[in-house]
Each structure stands twice: as structure tokens, then as C-alpha cells.
Write a structure and sequence with these properties.
three-stranded antiparallel β-sheet
């Protein structure tokens, strides 16, 4: 995966709001939308992308009063860094699990 995708996700306004909101407390898309002013469709799109690239995970599913299952998401990222090094874009993610993922070596940099 190229660092460009991660840098775009991390700097996207709605994605950043979501990541910040779910650092410590799992929240549903509906909560995120209402609390942080993110249109619900945009909220679901960002959640899908963040989940696809491993930045968030579904922590639990609860049953609503209407009998609908609601997913609650939490951030997988503890710290994220975006920087230029040696003329190349690099991204480093420190995950809650203690692992570190780095993107930007010669093998995974592509055209934006």
C-alpha cells in the first residue's frame, strides 16, 4: 500500500474527526454523525475506508431498541506520522496493539 492513501485518510477532515472521536471510546456511525457534524453518508464512507485500511475496527455490536444491530468502532491507531524523508513521502502508524506499520520504502511508493 502506498503512503499516499494513508496520508489522504489521515488528513481528510471527516476521517480525522472520526479517528479523534474513537481513540478511547467506541462510538457508532450515528453518534459520530450527530456529535461531530459529519453527514451520515460521508460518515459511513469514511468508516468503510478506515476499516478497510486497518485504522479502525468494530469493537462491538449492540441491538438497538428498534431491533437493529449497531456497530461501535474504535481506533486501531495510537499515533500517526506523515513526513518527507529523503525526498519521499513516508507514513508511520503506531497501533494500539503495540505494532508499528511503516509505508514509504521504495517498494511501495507509487504515483498519487
Amino acid at each position: 500500500m502506498t503512503p499516499f492513501i494513508y496520508s489522504q485518510l489521515l488528513t481528510d477532515e471527516y476521517a480525522a474527526r472520526i479517528l479523534t472521536a474513537i481513540m478511547r471510546v467506541p462510538r457508532s456511525a450515528q453518534e459520530l454523525s450527530a456529535t461531530y457534524g459529519i453527514p451520515i453518508a460521508a460518515c459511513y464512507r469514511r468508516i468503510r475506508m478506515l476499516e478497510k485500511y486497518g485504522l479502525i475496527e468494530c469493537k462491538e455490536r449492540k441491538l438497538s431498541q428498534q431491533g437493529k444491530r449497531i456497530n461501535y468502532y474504535i481506533s486501531s491507531v495510537k499515533n500517526a506520522y506523515i513526513f518527507f524523508e529523503g525526498g519521499k513521502l513516508r507514513v508511520r502508524l503506531d497501533l494500539v496493539s503495540g505494532a508499528t506499520k511503516e509505508f514509504g520504502d521504495d517498494s511501495d511508493i507509487g504515483e498519487p
